[in-house]
Design goal:
- One of its GO terms (molecular function) is phosphopantothenate--cysteine ligase activity.
- By secondary structure, the protein is an alpha/beta fold.
- The chain is built from six helices and twelve strands.
- The chain has an eight-stranded mixed beta sheet with strand order 5-4-1-6-9-10-11-12, with helices on both faces. A two-stranded antiparallel sheet has the order 2-3. The protein has a two-stranded antiparallel sheet with strand order 7-8.
- Strand 9 (about 155-160), helix 5 (about 165-180) and strand 10 form a beta-alpha-beta unit.
- Helix 1 (about 40-50) packs across helix 6 (about 220-235).
- The longest helix has 15 residues, at about 165-180.
- The two termini are about 35 Å apart.
- It binds cytidine-5'-triphosphate (CTP) and calcium ion.
- The site of cytidine-5'-triphosphate (CTP) has 14 residues, from helix 4 and strand 9.
């Protein structure tokens, strides 16, 4: 038999990856959510572990079949539910992490208050839900690093799902988003019918610190994960 061994080029690195989609409670049975499956985050975790890294996978509602892809002795999975829980888990991991990747779809807003009982139609309150903005987790992680509250040389990667079809407009939005968040790399994935959310395949462009496209990859989420780790190593 032929043993295929991945290069151990991430050996010695501690990495934290968020995956999946947060759910913001409306009441005990209802929530605001999104379509993120966690597949790209799980693939990033599996690829990192195969290449020698120690991984914390912060998983927001990642179903069993997906997390099975990230079963590895070097991957610790920490389950979270809301954006606030995801934020706390990532900040915890960030204190000792060399690389942070925010692949999770974090809710931009949450209901201003979650009811403590199941809301009923006759209460008449479900026709309108007041929302408040959630913290931008990845921007907070980048700010903590800028203030020296992170291991030196920490690399931070954000994701962005964009549905703009014009490639140049998409890149321009991505450049501004990378700068606004203060991250090193921004992986832009094209969220359309064939790619992105709930799909096995993905297509990404990675924008680097100078605003140029430093990597392009399409294929399985594992192939895309491999290209993203290559880009992380080049950026360090
Ligand atoms: N993100 C985050 N905290 C939030 C929202 C997003 O950390 N409250 C992270 C995501 O995990 C992702 C990156 O920010 O890595 C980009 O998310 P995206 O939704 O594309 O950016 P937003 O700043 O929310 O902008 P918009 O949704 O308006 O495009
Ligand atoms: Ca958003």
């Amino acid at each position: 038999a032929l043993a295929v061994v991945a290069p151990q080029d991430l050996a010695g690195l501690r990495v934290a990856i968020s995956a999946g989609g947060t759910r913001e409670p409306i009441d005990p049975v209802r929530f605001l959510g999104n379509r993120s499956s966690g597949r790209q985050g799980a693939a990033l975790a599996a690829e990192a572990a195969a290449r020698g890294a120690e991984v914390v996978l912060v998983a927001a509602h990642v179903e069993h079949a997906v997390r099975a892809a990230a079963l590895h002795p070097s991957i610790r999975v920490q389950d979270v539910g809301t954006a606030a829980e995801l934020s706390a888990a990532m900040k915890d991991a960030a204190a000792t992490a060399d690389v942070l990747i925010m692949a999770a779809a974090v809710a931009d807003y949450r209901p201003a208050e979650a009811a403590d009982h199941k809301l009923t139609k006759d209460e008449g309150v479900l026709t309108r839900i007041d929302l408040v903005e959630n913290e931008d987790v990845v921007a907070a992680l980048a700010a903590a690093r800028a203030e020296g509250r992170a291991p030196s040389g920490q690399t931070i990667v954000a994701f962005a799902a964009e549905t703009l079809h014009d490639a140049e407009q998409r890149r321009e939005r991505a450049r501004r988003k990378r700068e606004r968040k203060g991250v090193d790399l921004l992986a832009v994935n094209l969220a359309d019918a064939e790619h992105g959310f709930e799909r096995a395949e993905n297509a990404v462009e990675v924008i680097g610190a100078d605003g140029t496209v430093v990597a392009t990859s399409s294929g399985t989420k594992r192939q895309v994960a491999s290209a993203i780790w290559d880009a992380v190593l080049s950026a360090r």
